[in-house]
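Slide 14.
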Amino acid sequence: MLSPFFSRALCQTSENTTVATTKDVETPQRGLVQSLVSGRQIAAAAVNEGDSCEFGSLHYFALCGLGGILSCGITHTAVVPLDLVKCRIQVDPAKYKSVFNGFKVTLKEDGARGLAKGWAPTFFGYSAQGLCKFGLYEVFKVMYSDIIGEENSYLYRTWLYLSASASAEFFADIALSPMEAAKVKIQTTPGFANTLREAWPRIYREEGLNGFYKSLVPLWMRQIPYTMMKFACFERTVELLYKHVVPKPRADCTKGEQLVVTFAAGYIAGVFCAIVSHPADTVVSKLNQEKGSTALEAAKKLGMAGLWKGLMPRIVMIGTLTALQWFIYDAFKVAMRMPRPPPPEMPESLKKKLGQQ
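Slide 15: predicted structure.
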């Protein structure tokens, strides 16, 4: 099913594609990958000047995946202390009454080292998730754009971002789930385990493989809306910032100025992400704490008010996290000299059609 797409990504020859040379002689050109930019077709057989790879090639997708590993693995690990307190507020609000109180109780009972509990499954789990999230998002975005065509890719670009990110996150959560289960057990179940090496064997011994994937459905419920918001909101916010806030076109901005816009758009997207995905995040925390419980049972036990416990620390955490992830991802693209198409513009063919109407 995916073979036609991968043939294009691998730059296979297109028999029907021709381009005019400077002498107006039509010569065959190898597989063209269309971006979302007006009139911009990127030849997969030739790297644009200054770029390290061609847009839409396997090399490009592999680098996107590596950028995802760095952006998600580093940032999620950096906020482990806040994540730990957030999870404890969600599963035991009577003991951990607020963010400040949560840090105070944790430091008193476990010391400073206790704030780092769950760092290993966090790092490995979210690195795997980042690989799939960012790498596959770029894959699906190109694939879906190619299916619906350049004009529809512009007209329905928000839906394109939503569908590509949802598809990528579906697979990313399968990679994340085993590590997420271990992380929550370490952070919220006293005496269960202190390290990943202790947690994994015990989860398997007590619950089998189901222990690693029992929270996969609520994880999808949390992460897929989160990721859809994360990518679609980010893409459209960048577009709006360059159109209405930044006083000059992106092409005239320095790399540093572009990264500032990336960070700002990432933070705005992160705030919306936190709100959309928070109830499911609370269910995931509760579900992994209690053996044998189901998502529906956990939600009923928490109640409507309980589902929104820990929202403020999650907004701070996810807002900062999302902004840093996009900053690291875009900075990685800059450092690796990867193609970074500017915000989409209306294709010339569509302009002509609208002008005729």
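Speaker note: The CA atoms of residues 226 and 276 lie 6 Å apart.
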